[in-house]
Amino acid sequence: MDYTFSYDGASDEIILTSIGGDFGEGAYAIAVSDAGVTSAIRDLASTGNTMGSAAFHVTIDTNGPRVTAGAPAPGSYLDTAPAEVAFDFDEEIDWSTISTADILLTGPNGVTMIDGFDTPTGTRLVVHVSETTAGRYTMTVGPNLTDLAGNAMNQNSVSPNGDASADAFSVDWVVNPQKT
Q1: CA-CA distance, 13 to 124, in Å (whole number)?
Q2: 116-124 long-range contacts, Cβ below 8 Å, gap at least 24?
Q3: How many angstroms from the chain centroid is the CA of residue 175?
Q4: Distance of alpha carbon 41 from the chain centroid
Q5: pLDDT reported for residue 159
Q6: Most distant CA pair in the chain, distance
Q7: Could you give the CA distance from residue 106 to residue 102 in angstroms, rounded to a whole number?
């Protein structure tokens, strides 16, 4: 794949554009040097500042995060209601992109408010619940929270990321099944 470089003076950025294709997900290395040419790489102001060789390493991440595990396990039958529900993601999450509006708990009495969630780090979200009524519950998280690269959830691993009908994750459980 061929690439072109351009410079945006307003943002002071060098822009790399692919010709004839997209940048695929993965790690890239870009090397810049004068390659033995007598004219060195110079600053745009032509003030005589030159640069020797430079290497830049870039990771392109276009896949949104996915929930890989949770507790309680989907379809669990529990004697007592859980005080916490945990979600494990496959990559780090930008936790500033999640709020209680991104977590929906539905129980035998309809939609129920959660008590909150831990201010997480890394890949685990822990949601606190105090609902103890016997019956079936479903908790849904997402799809608007993002990874560190800004990609919305992609639970089904199909574009586009953040699809409200396909990219949220739900776990269900039954509390005190002998009473339901």
Answers
A1: 35
A2: 119/95, 120/93, 120/95, 121/95, 122/92, 122/93, 123/88, 123/89, 123/90, 123/91, 123/92, 123/93, 124/86, 124/87, 124/88, 124/89
A3: 31
A4: 37
A5: 85
A6: 84
A7: 13
pLDDT digits 0-9 by tens, 121-132:
789 999 999 888
Name the token pair of 70: 């949770």
pLDDT tens-place string over residues 16-45: 676 666 666 666 666 665 555 444 455 555
Closest CA to 124 of 151, 98, 105: 98
Q: What is the mean pLDDT of the chain?
A: 81
CA distance 64 to 61: 8
Where b means 16+ CB within 10 Å and e means fewer, 26-37 reads eeeeeeeeeeee
Q: Which two tokens stand for residue 167?
A: 């990219």
